[in-house]
Amino acid sequence: MSRRFISRKQKTEVELFPFLSVLACTIGTLVLLIVVLTTQALKPQEAVVVAKTEAKTDKNSKGANKNKTPVYIEAREDGFILHPSKKFAPRTDLYDEKSALRKTIANLKANKNKQYLILILRPDGLEMFDKARQLVQGEGIDIGYEPLEYGLELKIES
Question: Which domain holds residue 140?
């Protein structure tokens, strides 16, 4: 009797381990990317305004206020913020002669040759900006303005 060798067909097996490991790495990378982008989006943004106090003596430079020191007042919907002390002055302080806002404006008027005002304008503070601008221009004080987006924090360095 002869024995026959029965050849069995070998089945091909598909291994999914390399594919699954690549898929797991891709998902992990995407999760990390989402976490990083979300934390950056949630951080409060900050605008830095650098106030230089040194006098410039460049005769060729243009601008009337190059030799003056800026004083910053931020106009908001409910009032003003006096910088760099960050003291809040409500809208009624425009009419109170003894308020910190009016004292700052009086100080600017007394030092017209050395200082000028920069009003920081917030989108919701247009009404307060107009009132302060009218008051300051009536006093003959040099004025400038800087629009600042909603949600940005203002930091003044000297």
Answer: 46-57+66-157
Residues 123 and 75: beta-carbon distance below 8 Å: no
Q: What are residue 127's DSSP bridge partners?
A: none
Residue 112 located in a structural domain: yes
What is the chain's pLDDT, residue by residue, as a tens digit (158 residues)?
Answer: 555 655 566 777 778 778 889 999 999 999 999 999 998 888 776 666 565 544 455 555 566 667 888 899 999 999 999 988 889 999 888 888 899 999 999 999 999 889 999 999 988 999 999 999 998 988 889 998 888 887 777 777 76
Question: Is residue 150 domain-resident?
Answer: yes
- CA-to-CA distance for 42 and 36, rounded, in angstroms? 10
State whether 75 and 151 are in the same domain: yes
First vs last Cα of the chain: how many Å apart? Answer: 106
Note whether 33 and 50 are same-domain residues: no
Q: Is the pTM of this model over 0.85?
A: no
